[in-house]
# Entry
Amino acid sequence: MKTDVAIVGAGPAGLMLAHLLRQAGIDVVVLERKSSDYVLSRIRAGVLEQVTVDLLDELDLGERMHREGLPHEGFFLADGERLIHINMAELTGRSVMVYGQTEVTRDLMNASAARGVEVVYEAEDVALHDIDNESPYVTYLKNGTEHRVDARFIAGCDGFHGPSRQAIPDTVGRAYERVYPFGWLGILADVPPCNDELIYANHENGFALASMRSKTRSRYYIQVPLDEKLSDWPDDRLWDELATRLGPDAASHITRGPALEKSIAPLRSYVFEPMRYGSLFLAGDSAHIVPPTGAKGLNLASSDVAYLSRAMIEYFKEGRSEGIDAYSQTALARVWKSERFSWTLTTLMHRFPDGGAFGRRMQVAELDYIAGSRAAQTSIAENYIGLPL
Ligand code: FAD
Ligand code: DHB
# Structure
């Protein structure tokens, strides 16, 4: 099979890129290791920046998001002593949209066939070949038969563990990494949220986040040690701990319910440079990971594919390669700023086992400063709503 762009991975990065290219008349084939049901069963991000909202609108796929999503104009930082309101709308004139990654993926998936976006699910043993020249190709197994897709470019949208980044020779790239000594235990439940806006809490037992997917579906997280087991956290224990960490006011509004999903995710900051090697372009989690505090992961995948789609469209439609040549540098400039914000918010709101008394006093001083400074609140708000492309 021959196509213009072979895309590895049908997460949000791969599907958004596929639709953006297809809308411009560029041929794509997307290869995904898992089934479509499996991809939709992964509960991940919940907050969309304007960049993601704009991309879905540009694709004319934003109708359900605008109907069912919840625009949020602010959020809270809590530390037991204070409840700091970050009023994004007042400070920046902008807001974010609460609409789950699962729903974004579902909207893209449902539109694929009608728009000529070919997605091969359950493609096994995907391997990249000849990425250092202009005729790369991808091979995969489907139902025991080997297939080959020849392309002009390959887009590696296959997440942190996928084969694309690993296809780049060790001598070419460099990884920057910080692994945090804790993870997030998340619970999804069909109960009304405890508050209209998100609450990020720094409690002596550790971080907690009260989030949501809709007016009837809540998403909560707590910081747990890395070696914690899900079996140690029956629903009741988790609800009790959330009530403790979020404080009495929020706790009095928590509605408990059975977990629809419960999982533990480790926290990591990671950037791989460069995001291009020859005919291979990385986008989304294949190139970078942020700790989830601040909800930047999915939104960075969106900004990557916004840059990459524009650059590839220029290449195929106008024969210009300035955009693809600048892609890595352009995308990384925004990636590093989101890495900085996610790291800052993670450092401010979590309890670090080796943070010591000084580290804790720094958190208190910073929260105190944020509480009293409109400038500090504006800085947080403009990063949270998402930096411009
Ligand atoms: P992914 O969504 O990972 O998609 C990559 C796709 O590639 C997957 O479908 C995968 O199956 C496929 N793939 C992998 N290997 C192969 C292969 N060999 N062949 C073919 N296909 C392959 N962000 C937030 O902002 N808030 C959150 O609360 C949050 N929670 C998260 C929880 C978890 C457990 C994880 C892992 C991430 C979370 N994130 C969160 C981050 C956010 O979900 C990601 O940044 C986002 O999914 C990135 O999209 P992506 O398309 O780049 O990668
Ligand atoms: C969610 C996750 C986040 O990391 C965050 O900062 C806000 C919301 C969520 O899953 O709802």
Q: What stands out?
A: The two ends are 35 Å apart (CA to CA).
